[in-house]
Each structure stands twice: as C-alpha cells, then as structure tokens.
Amino acid sequence: MAVFLTAVGLIVWVFPESNILDYGYADMGSFFKLAPYVLLFLIPAITMRSLAEENRTGTLELLLTKPLRNRDLILGKFFANWALVLITILPTLLYYISIYQLGNPKGNIDSAAVFGSYIGLILFCGVLVSMGIWCSSLNDNQIVAFILGVFLAFIWYVGFGAVSLLLESGSLAELFSWIALDGQYSALGKGLIDSRNVIYLISLMIFFLFFTYWQVEKLRK
User: Fold this and answer.
1) Exposed site from 18, 86, 100, 195, fewest CB < 10 Å?
2) Is 202 a domain residue?
3) Domain residues for 169?
4) Which pTM value belongs to this model?
C-alpha cells in the first residue's frame, strides 16, 4: 500500500513529465493512465499467498476438510483481497479533492470522467485480483504465483491491445481490441458508463474465479 501511494503520489505531484502543477489543467489523467501499471505488480504481490501459501503449509487441506464450500472459500479470498486493494486506492480521493480546490475557478474539473475512471479502476482491480487468486491456486510457490500473475495481467492489459494494433484492421483486430483490458478501462474513463464494459469486466472476474473453483475442486479430490 505504501509503495502504491508513494509511486502514484510522485507521478501526480512531483515528476516533471506528469505532475499536475506543471501541467496547468485540473485533470487526473496522469494518475489514471499510470496507476494500472503500478497495480499490475502490486495486486499479484497481494494475491500470491492466497492459496499458494495455504497449500505449502498444509492449512489448505485443513480448510478443505471443514464443512466449507469451495465457493465460500474462493469468494472469501477474492473479496478480502479486493477490499484490501480498494482500501489502498481510497486515499487517492484526496487528489481529486485537492485538484477540485485548486481549480480556477474552484471545482473546474470533469467530475464525471474522474468517477467513471474510478469505477473502471475498481473493476480493473477486481479482474487482476481474480487472475492473481487463480495463479495462486496453481502451485504452492508464492513467487511463481506472483510471476504468473504479473505475466497474465500484463498480457491482458497490454498484450492484446498490442496485437490488435499489429493486425491494424479486420474482425480479429477488433476482437483483440475489445478483450484488451486497457480498452475497456479507457472507455469507462470517458465519463459515460457503458453497461457492455461493466458486464465484460465482471464476466472476466467470474471466468477466473470459476477456474480457481475448478482447481480447488481438484485439490479436494
């Protein structure tokens, strides 16, 4: 949490290439553009122990012998990790308050775009958490889980969009552009919440949670 807040604080307020004070506009674009790249590493670091450490220490076997459904175990891990990430993001609302007060005139900031971007960031974090928990369920080594989580998140956020740019045009390029997380996240940041983007991101969470459920079911057997 300290690493995330320090990194984005430097990006928004200190670094000359991105700080708001030198930029001259009441805008949080630099924060919402660069925060996902920090989260690509932060969230896998948070989730890497979720099931891998339980498996390594043997406590997962103990949990699986309890009258606890796999669904409850996985959802408990998911919502606990997601809540921790959201608590990490919460202090950044101070940036919005500060920019709102510094605007000329006061309040001269596109609030709809800011809150749309926050919704996109929250859903984006949920997707990365579900990916990280699935990677953590694949083995008992948390470092491997971290590396797999970063790799998968990077491919989904940057890789698919890069492939669509290489293909330039056509239905396949449109498909890769649609499934890329950066495109979905950017669309929500425009201030208009499209239900298609929200449904896609929620579906992606469910997709990875289902694979986690399937993996835990294999461990139970």
Assistant:
1) 195
2) yes
3) 36-81+109-220
4) 0.87
